[in-house]
Design goal:
The protein starts with a strand and ends with a helix. Strands 3-2-1-4-11-6-12 form a 7-stranded mixed sheet. Strands 5-14-13 form a 3-stranded mixed sheet. Helices cover 36% and strands 16% of the residues. The protein has 2 domains: 156 residues, Rossmann fold (3-Layer(aba) Sandwich), CATH 3.40.50; 43 residues, no CATH class. It is of the alpha/beta class and 283 residues long.
């Protein structure tokens, strides 16, 4: 029922352990991996993993969207499973696979992802203001051109740009980079560039396009049912922290299907998550 797309750029042993866990829990599912070989060598992974041609990616850059779509296109061409989940190499399963599949069959949604409307005309909270500045077109960010520049320098190197591609007919949305989607939603994403060419052109010049492109394509596609439940366990302070053994009780008590970012050096945590998956499978 479920397959996976992985985005990775480092830590081969942790990615391999993730794949081995997915293989046990989801019965050797189809997996497509985009690994950025400019940052580390391609990891040795089990034979059910297919690698897509590598792009050079950078944090906060549109190349992350391109890598995701490239891997999704390969996945759609090789898999007959209904659902696909986008993971990073630092993610790990939390819920038993059969519970995830039960919820997917029960809930009437085509995609599960964090999504919120971004409209500076109606949104007055800080979350909306920040994303309206990124995506609506009042500012272009050129930090991704200058390697090593961090987002805190965003305002100092941006320059004003007036006009926007968004209105009541074409709305802006944002949320999380990560999602679980069925074939209908994947098809919408893969045709998004052809249906909304101005979006891809503009988002090459905005910061964190990966936190808005998917939501904006899906939010403007008729017939795609979106659940705002991401089903990912993560802790922000203010960025995602590395999850360790002390976080396990709250992970298991949550409604999360997967956790990020898992500390791959915490063998006790990984062993406990593996044991939970095996116990659930053997019931």
């Amino acid at each position: 029922m479920m397959g996976f797309v992985l985005l990775s750029h480092q830590n081969g042993p942790q990615t391999r352990r993730l794949v081995e866990c997915l293989n046990r829990a989801y019965e050797t599912p189809p997996i497509v991996c985009h690994h950025d070989i400019s940052q580390s060598p391609r990891p040795a992974l089990p034979p059910n993993v297919r690698f897509v041609d590598s792009l050079q990616t950078r944090w906060g850059h549109f190349s992350l969207v391109e890598a995701t779509l490239r891997a999704l296109a390969m996945y759609a061409s090789i898999s007959d499973r209904e659902w696909v989940t986008l993971l990073s190499g630092a993610d790990y399963p939390v819920a038993p696979a059969r519970e995830v599949c039960r919820q997917l069959a029960r809930d009437e949604a085509d995609v599960f992802t964090e999504i919120r409307r971004v409209d500076p005309m109606t949104g007055v909270d800080q979350w909306t203001k920040l994303r309206a500045d990124r995506y609506w077109g009042t500012r272009m960010w050129i930090g991704h051109i200058l390697r090593g520049l961090r987002p805190r320098a965003q305002k100092s190197i941006g320059f004003r740009r007036y006009g926007t591609i968004f209105d009541e007919r074409f709305r802006c949305y944002a949320g999380s980079q990560w999602f679980t989607a069925n074939r209908r939603a994947v098809s919408a994403l893969l045709t998004g560039a052809a249906r909304f060419p101005a979006l891809a052109r503009r988002y090459r010049w905005v910061f964190c396009a990966d936190e808005s492109y998917v939501q904006t394509v899906l939010g403007n596609t008729d017939g795609v049912r979106i659940s705002p439940e991401l089903h990912r366990y993560q802790i922000w302070k203010p960025a995602p922290i590395n999850l360790r053994r002390e976080h396990l009780p709250s992970m298991l008590a949550s409604d999360a299907w997967f956790a990020r970012k898992v500390d791959g050096s915490d063998m006790e945590l990984l062993d406990a998550l593996d044991q939970n998956a095996r116990a659930a499978t053997n019931k």
